[in-house]
Amino acid sequence: MYPVEACVQPSEGQWVEYLAYDRAYLNSTLCTTQSFFDFVRHSALSDTAVYHLNNTLQTLRQNLADPYFVTSDSTISTVLTLVILADVIDDSNAAKRHAQGLYQLVHLRGGISALQHNRELQVKVLR
């Protein structure tokens, strides 16, 4: 199991900060939020969710080409969000591809220990 502190304690605003400066993370959050409401209504992904998913993928590609963003915490968080979303909507192929990308990003960053400054993210990646 994971330490409860890493699972439920709010951080120092890092997730909100990502929303302010990383468009890929912002769009992944909007997509996930809309997908949650779609799921609760027992409906397929809405046009709004698909719109934000497409924007997520487009801006994520830009981040992956940017040396500042390529292995940033916010980019890793964005890909992690895509893994979770793909799993929730039962798209195992996409979940596998995103998980492989997540592994590559963490590897490029220096491994899971390179995330020790951000315990919440480190624990989420390990899940």
User: Which runs of at least 5 residues are low in confidence (pLDDT < 50)?
Assistant: none
Choose one word for the global shape. Answer: globular
Helicity range: over 70%
Number of domains: 1
Explain what this protein looks like in three dimensions:
This protein has 127 residues and is an all-alpha fold. The chain has one domain. It has 7 helices and no strands. It has helices at residues 4-8, 14-21, 23-40, 47-64, 73-88, 92-109, 119-126. The chain is globular and about 40 Å long.
Keywords:
127 residues, mainly alpha, 7 helices
Can you lay out the helices and strands and say which pair or pack?
Elements: H1 4-8, H2 14-21, H3 23-40, H4 47-64, H5 73-88, H6 92-109, H7 119-126
In short:
By secondary structure, this protein is mainly α. Helix content is 72%, strand content 0%.
